[in-house]
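Task: sequence design from structure.
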């Protein structure tokens, strides 16, 4: 019988999380699927955090959780009906990773979901697998590990084997392990204070008044780390007034390296949603000609909204493919003193922040990105004025998208000189994304 019992305590957040897992496995972005599920089930307050933690955690740990299903189930994870596979994941994640959730709550809610969703017959299987997981956990027994080092680390840290193989190749086993772990760390939220309106102390005081704790960040002059705060950020003090933006500390390094001056002509060629465009405008005291170009009109609307909220007026918006910008805007030949190219990339430096990214990206689409990045670099070069500066940045740690890409560009453009290059690895404690920045000046 299919009877919907939503009286079981804590059931609704689990149903919402389960739906997020299903949507993401069908191709949806985690952030969007989460927003939809929260809205559909009218989930409020602390329960929002619970849904996010269970859903994002289960997506991140997909590979490890599959190994538990393989170990405990009669049918391997990938051969399970998808709804059941994600229901196992939902329960297992709570049992294995969430200390504050009693094991009984994880089992009862998962069994109830099975009963409510036309697989009542399978409810005993869910019950059996989850109870067996609890027994094994309490005895310290875990699924068998593969022998191959790459496969073992991939299973342990729930990452694709191809990524671990590359990581070991790039940085050796020891550092690869640290980076793999960093990809699963809880990340902190960093803010960038809008220096045209307020200073760091003003924002700290405002936040303290609402029990939100923020600390300054070393080597990040306008940055604040949120050490304690919850709820919808848009309701935090100062957001609507444009006193701050959310921006990771590594991303906050980029605009200062572009070093725009008041009155400069500046191009941000892959600008949306505008994190770095608005930072550039703030550094220019909102005086000058700053162009935010992006291929996506939808995303450019976010740049406009952010600029409005922050009270920035010097930003102009233009939708175009930046790799052919020169052909579309011939008046821009040698026009810009500063160009920022924050290219689309594999995002391998931000895996901890984006739970589904590791399952979305693969070597074939990275190859496409490398080709696109090269086109973008060549496409914006004719727009640079004599003596100007190009800053190229990515949020990945893949050398082909980073230093190797830039070496190729420099080899083909002898008038450009590399002034500074930084590969920032994802912070091992979740404080800061992995990032790459190259600063090149025309001689
Ligand atoms: C890494 S994001 C940029 C993030 C942005 N700089 C920020 O700090 O908020 C890359 C952007 O490049 C855009 N993009 C991708 N291909 C492009 C192209 N050929 N021309 C212009 N923009 C492109 C994407 O729409 C995306 O908004």
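Answer:
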């Amino acid at each position: 019988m299919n009877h919907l019992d939503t009286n079981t305590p804590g059931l609704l957040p689990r149903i919402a999380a389960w739906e997020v897992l299903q949507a993401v496995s069908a191709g949806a972005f985690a952030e969007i699927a989460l927003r939809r599920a929260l809205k559909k089930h009218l989930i409020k307050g602390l329960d929002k955090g619970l849904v996010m933690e269970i859903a994002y955690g289960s997506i991140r740990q997909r590979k490890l959780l599959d190994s538990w299903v393989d170990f405990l189930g009669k049918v391997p994870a990938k051969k399970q009906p998808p709804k059941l596979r994600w229901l196992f994941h939902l329960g297992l994640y709570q049992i294995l990773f969430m200390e504050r959730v009693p094991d009984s709550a994880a089992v009862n809610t998962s069994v109830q979901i099975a009963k409510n969703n036309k697989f009542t017959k399978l409810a005993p299987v869910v019950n059996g697998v989850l109870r067996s997981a609890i027994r094994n956990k309490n005895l310290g027994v875990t699924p068998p590990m593969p022998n191959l080092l790459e496969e073992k680390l991939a299973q342990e840290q729930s990452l694709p084997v191809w990524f671990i193989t590359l990581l070991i190749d790039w940085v050796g086993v020891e550092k690869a392990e640290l980076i793999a772990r960093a990809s699963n760390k809880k990340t902190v939220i960093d803010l960038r204070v809008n220096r045209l309106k307020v200073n760091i102390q003003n924002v700290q005081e405002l936040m303290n008044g609402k029990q939100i704790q923020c600390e300054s960040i070393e080597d990040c002059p306008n940055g604040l780390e949120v050490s304690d705060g919850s709820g919808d950020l848009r309701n935090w003090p100062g957001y609507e007034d444009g006193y701050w933006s959310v921006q990771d500390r590594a991303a906050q390094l980029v605009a200062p390296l572009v070093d725009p001056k008041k009155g400069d002509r500046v191009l941000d060629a892959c600008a949306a949603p505008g994190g770095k465009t608005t930072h550039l405008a703030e550094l220019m005291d909102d005086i000058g000609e700053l162009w935010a170009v992006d291929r996506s009109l939808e995303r450019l609307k976010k740049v406009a909204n952010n600029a409005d909220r922050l009270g920035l007026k010097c930003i102009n918006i233009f939708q175009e493919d930046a790799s052919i910008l020169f052909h579309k805007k011939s008046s821009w030949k040698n026009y810009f003193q500063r160009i920022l190219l924050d290219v689309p990339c594999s995002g391998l430096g931000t895996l901890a922040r984006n739970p589904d990214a590791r399952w979305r990206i693969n070597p074939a689409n990275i190859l496409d990105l490398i080709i696109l990045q090269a086109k973008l670099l060549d496409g914006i070069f004719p727009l640079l004025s004599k003596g100007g500066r190009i800053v190229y940045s990515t949020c990945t740690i893949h050398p082909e998208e980073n230093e190797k890409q830039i070496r190729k560009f420099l080899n083909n453009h002898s008038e450009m000189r590399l002034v500074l290059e930084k590969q920032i690895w994802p912070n091992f404690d979740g404080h800061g994304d992995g990032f790459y920045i190259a600063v090149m000046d025309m001689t």
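The longest helix spans residues 161-182.
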